[in-house]
Amino acid sequence: MISSRSALASGPTDSAGLRSETVRSANLATVLRVLHFDGPTSRSEMVARTGLTRSAIGALVGELVRSGLVVERRAISDGSPGRPSPVASVMSEQNVALAVEVLVDSIGVAAVGLGGVVLHSFRIDRPRDRVSVERTIDDIIDAVGRVREQLVPSCRVIGMGVGVVGIVRRSDNSVSIAPNLGWRDVPFGAKLAASLGHEFPVLLANDADAAALAEVRRGAAMGIDDALCIWGEVGVGGGLISRGEPVTGASGFAGEVGHMPVNPDGRACQCGSIGCWETEIGEGSLLRRTGRPPDGGRAAVDAVLRDASAAVPGALEALAVEARWLGIGLSGLINVLNPSMVVLGGLFGRLHPLIARQLDDEIAHRALPSARAQLRVVPSSIGADAVLLGAAELAFETVLNDPLGTRDLRLVADGR
Amino acid sequence: MISSRSALASGPTDSAGLRSETVRSANLATVLRVLHFDGPTSRSEMVARTGLTRSAIGALVGELVRSGLVVERRAISDGSPGRPSPVASVMSEQNVALAVEVLVDSIGVAAVGLGGVVLHSFRIDRPRDRVSVERTIDDIIDAVGRVREQLVPSCRVIGMGVGVVGIVRRSDNSVSIAPNLGWRDVPFGAKLAASLGHEFPVLLANDADAAALAEVRRGAAMGIDDALCIWGEVGVGGGLISRGEPVTGASGFAGEVGHMPVNPDGRACQCGSIGCWETEIGEGSLLRRTGRPPDGGRAAVDAVLRDASAAVPGALEALAVEARWLGIGLSGLINVLNPSMVVLGGLFGRLHPLIARQLDDEIAHRALPSARAQLRVVPSSIGADAVLLGAAELAFETVLNDPLGTRDLRLVADGR
DNA sequence: GCGGTTTGTTCGTGATGACGACAAACATCG
DNA sequence: CGATGTTTGTCGTCATCACGAACAAACCGC
Do A216 and B7 count as a contact with CB atoms less than 8 A apart? Predict the structure, then answer.
């Protein structure tokens, strides 16, 4: 495998030298990451996994415990000989990320503990005319307040992750365009952070990207280094994972698979182009093919699914066409990115059981044999919380990269 | 930006702990990388760039000098006050990579010095019936011999990089399928390494991938973290760069953009699918549109370019169609990957001056405004040597990642 | 030739992990 | 129930590596 740091001239960070502190920080991060992703782990297990010595692991875990991120429980003897190893685990309740999901008709907020546990959550349904930026921020603050009430007093908020139905420019935490909300070039991250008094960092992401992240970190694609998550509702979004990390692109727009041209002489897309993938596989398109109004929403889709399960001819045909176009677009992405797993979420996750066969056929026909050799296409395994969990992971990244860098200063003071 | 190591469970390498040696190795790599990519650099400049102290840089450069990778020349006083800083540079002639380019009608071999200098090269033209695996290996060994004769006696061969016209599985250095050569599932890397007596590592890559790497390391996309290189000849290949590193995909197939479906009801592709991008923009397609036989090769393409420059109507129209389809496919890739630069090489590089306008229009029409905001589309800046230079970079990676890991044992022995 | 400036070099210090010795905690067996 | 073996935490020592300060060297300008 090729692996190198970026060439040069791209800023001082790239060619920065390493010092001893870097090592410590990286090792702390490694340990915390294991606990965050794999759950409670004994010290001896950590020795085996990291290759570090017992003494090093002891010191590292100790430091994490002192900083309030980790607890160690006395070992429960598991029957094997030898001295039992204490099990470290993350302090979920004391270290939480606030996750926010901004949809058109509702706003969800959750407190997610380190380790990925949803501790508390709250959802505000709202009429379609209540989607202005200010209203949205008000609603979020309201919901955040309610969620925070339920947290333990000693709890520390690590950060906030927000998944928005719209195209997000990650480089400056702004919403570039969100047609369904009527937003355009909104510095949403900055506004929200300001409204919250800059108490913690606020990170924005496209909802599909967030869901993809959740899927890779805690769902079907766990442990997969090259994955592709396609999220479909009204629009179609995607999250790309390469080398185990999300592909963001130059300004964080990567993954807008919905606007890949697949049918250059097809229907006009609301993005201004013609024959985007979204126009062929989006919710509206599926509904139209069954003779329903394209804005029927989830209820209408459920009706189609029921019809198809009952083998109603019109519905079956519509699904066949859907499968065909889904397969066409996927084949392109498979040839370009060679993922080892494709996760279908949202609409496509629900559709998958009904169209798996035809979808696989289409891919077998159109994708290069070599590119699809190791491929698995699976439905999303995380349910409704995918976006929230992904948004939380976004916020956790800070601590996971540098566990002590952002630690609570109080704890530093009396910790040693 | 999100950045994290791969989650877990993906092998011990991922969650490996760092030790002090790691720091040394990483810092040596940083210094060597600067010299390799930026050319001769003074010590004081290196201090500024890496953030390391003068003493550390001194020790690091010293170690690289002792290992025979680097020389230090006495500083030439540049007029500024203060003690002049000695300039370190890479020992190109003593540390070379052998680069090989396997095309249908010729085989090129070059000795590329560390730093990216082509020292010597040799090309064997061969009839189209001489493309068997064995013949090819014979020809390579022959050419390698001739090139090596010209190297200085103290020269050390770091490795061999091979760019092949075909789909390469990087995970095991094999050629999965190369239609133009008639190869299929050939463990070419292993065979070649064996024929060379396993003297050095042999790394395989698709020719477009190699060219893309060259473009990112030393060409138009130098310093760009998210780039996309589209290489067109008979087939269409692509190299994806994300976060400054090539995207390889699960088994190293990523970048087969030529087989992205763009026209589902279009022409049959030799890959078995229908309406692949390649069928619309490949050399054959361009020639067919001008009424020429599709296998006319480079000479025929040149004729088309001449016609277009002379504003012959048929040629202009053909180029317009070419530009349209090139734009359609590119727009999809831009929306999915959000690169900040697209480099057009091979056929497309030659075409670019003639179609730039129409291409930009098509992209403006089809790609999301946010995704193309920072985008530049440029022709390749490296000429005929792109594949060779990229193949060499592939081989250099070993040393650049761990400068002393592979050093000549002789030098270790008397070096200290 | 003298001061000012920049840079290489040397040496001591601090941080960090490896390693070995020892003690603690558990299971098994007699 | 105690002896033994095994596994593991802890402590002290050592090696590695970068930092920082002091000093020397090499250049400029006057």
Answer: yes
